[in-house]
């Protein structure tokens, strides 16, 4: 017991003893001991009930009552209750202030923030920006199912995938299709999700300007390069033998520039596309073409093998897939010293199908792998340039595979070689049942672009 409470307790017992003693003396003097003692005891009980009532009043009152003054257990109890009520009130005030500050901050965010019930996907709360970006209205949309409310957006499926939902990069706003949004779903508790939508219109516009710039510059460079190339071809080194090495170097460099421009144009074309054609890609002839190209590039310096183990063809764009696969084959030849071998494989991998290009070349240090598909990222710039690389091959591969909902996996060991595997989802494959190459698939449920 606290010293305060202990002394109050002793004092109360003392007062009780004094009152009883007084009553006893009064009783003896009056010759009526028991009636006087009983009256005193009843008085004490009544007083205690009165104090108990005061405690109840304090606990149930909505007003702030002042603390009791004076000594004794009841007054001490009253003061303790007053202090604990004060503490609780202060804590509550601080919490409410904090909550208001958080709400004000969330409400003032320029991004749309919507709190969703995880199970019903109904709106629990949203901030002001949600009105401008998503078209939500207060209070009618509180409790509304978000998927239906934003129906023009194809997000019902996305919402259903919950914590596995990849961020959507570029979706039109239901308020104004010119407004582009990026959306993320963030599960932040067992019951609630947060949907955050950000206006990325300016970013998308800048990205478009960048793409157009690269595409235009590449396009403009094409004609002068063709002219330079043409004139260089007309020059005969036997006319001026001392110019022969210079002419040879000029031809090599102009070829490199032409290849760079072509790769940039390919990348620009791929970036501008959201989907690819859905034709049947004959893999037997594709593998034969890749083998021929590998042999032509290798000029007998490597052993080239093809292992066709999947009796399926792919749905997709023959042109784009060929461009991706031939980039992998060209890299395998380029980065494998003479005497090495190159194996092009096509096989089923569980439900999926995989085209792999394996070489016994230089390999890639593990530290470079995460960035290897970035444009102009090279392990060794000098080696790539010397061997005729543009630094854009793997960026093209990545884009083509994304357009086919496929992914690129790379395994590599320095000094031992590399395996580049393009893995296609099961619905990109169909049996080689004589569906002619170029036949068009009947379906086009196009996915929204994801990060
Ligand atoms: P590049 O035109 O320089 O080959 P890529 O984008 O095709 O550009 O490849 C990027 C880099 O990845 C290359 O510069 C090279 O360092 C490395 N690389 C690609 N393929 C292979 C491979 N099969 N073996 C070793 N390194 C490779």
From TrEMBL:
Reaction catalysed by this enzyme: ATP + protein L-histidine = ADP + protein N-phospho-L-histidine
EC number: 2.7.13.3
Localization per Swiss-Prot or TrEMBL: Cell membrane
Region spans: Disordered: 430-451
Major place of residence: membrane
GO molecular function, one term: kinase activity
UniProt xrefs under InterPro entries: BphY/WalK/GraS-like, HATPase_C_sf, HATPase_dom, His_kinase_dom, HisK_dim/P_dom, HisK_dim/P_sf, PAS, PAS-like_dom_sf
Keywords: ATP-binding, Cell membrane, Kinase, Membrane, Nucleotide-binding, Phosphate transport, Phosphoprotein, Transferase, Transmembrane, Transmembrane helix, Transport, Two-component regulatory system
Top EC class of this enzyme: transferase
Gene3D superfamilies hit by this protein: 1.10.287.130, Histidine kinase-like ATPase, C-terminal domain
Chain ranges of the Histidine kinase domain: 216-428
PANTHER family, alphabetized: PHOSPHATE REGULON SENSOR PROTEIN PHOR
Function: Member of the two-component regulatory system PhoR/PhoB involved in the phosphate regulon genes expression. PhoR may function as a membrane-associated protein kinase that phosphorylates PhoB in response to environmental signals.
Listed NCBIfam families: phoR_proteo
Protein name according to UniProt: Phosphate regulon sensor protein PhoR
